[in-house]
């Protein structure tokens, strides 16, 4: 009887290990925008893009241009889509509710829920790219949200995307970070209130590569998640030790939201990555080697589910910029996971395919069989 009790206790322990805890790994997706062609002649079909995403086991895609043909291609794939309203449309959607409804009729209603749409970003980094657009952001977001509500679509959240460099002037120490003024009070605070009220998320484009390039005091290993003995920075105010630049930047965003009373809003990193080639020869760290090191380390860091020092659950979603690189030519940075001919650029797999989970399931299955055989003897 003692042996039976031992086996049953072991089985219960393994089952407990297999059940996810409250800390869950971040959803990791990619961004995609429709290029004109591949190699200057062959068009990329939306169905081919959707099939490639499914084959790579990528659970979420941010569509930077929200092409209706691409949205349609993801029907029944269970891939979650993050749609975007382009900056030039923001003032129009803000001033005319019927135009907001028309956008929803064109980009959401024909496809949802067959295509899984999770969030809509009204504008992308409007503060820097289109400063004259930013005063219209909140009204446009409200009109898109009301249009969805009128159609009884309640599970698609509405937000807007900011760029870290244009709203957080000082990232270190993270505990002292605040949104840049006057945009913090005039633009961001009312948007945070809207996000809180509608159970939406704060969206941020966050590139450690750009911060590393802007500061000589940041070592390359800190930006690439390398675990060297002196690869850390201490926030003396909170006593927190940061071992990578990504977490430090995320916590600077969380601290900035906390200053405005919204520290618990979910955060989605709408774009991040490391370029495999630079604009010119001066970008010596924009290499395929560093790009692969960053992406492999970032994926491993996010999958472990440890979060950041200020937010143990971490960011809810992260989107790697980008799925398919632009055509190789001088004067542009390349970020893609795939070459423009759709072949893989890196040696690692984007998805781990749930290997760790399957191992635990097989292990439990083995012990169940052992216990059953013992009981039948």
TrEMBL record:
Which InterPro entries does its entry note? GH, Glyco_hydro_17, Glyco_hydro_17_plant
Domain of life according to the entry: Eukaryota
Q: Which UniProt keywords apply?
A: Glycosidase, Hydrolase, Membrane, Signal, Transmembrane, Transmembrane helix
Leader sequence residues: 1-25
Q: Which SUPFAM superfamilies match?
A: (Trans)glycosidases
* Short name of any one Pfam family annotated for the protein: Glyco_hydro_17
EC number(s) per UniProt?
A: 3.2.1.39
Which GO BP terms, alphabetically?
A: carbohydrate metabolic process
Reactions catalysed, as given in the entry: Hydrolysis of (1->3)-beta-D-glucosidic linkages in (1->3)-beta-D-glucans
- The top EC class is hydrolase
- The regions listed as transmembrane in this protein's record are 359-376
Q: Which PROSITE patterns match?
A: GLYCOSYL_HYDROL_F17
Output the Gene3D superfamilies linked to this UniProt entry.
Answer: Glycosidases
Select a single GO molecular function from the record's annotations and give it: glucan endo-1,3-beta-D-glucosidase activity
Give the family per the record: Belongs to the glycosyl hydrolase 17 family.
PANTHER family, sorted: GLUCAN ENDO-1,3-BETA-GLUCOSIDASE BG1-RELATED-RELATED
**Protein name per the record:** glucan endo-1,3-beta-D-glucosidase
Organism name? Thlaspi arvense
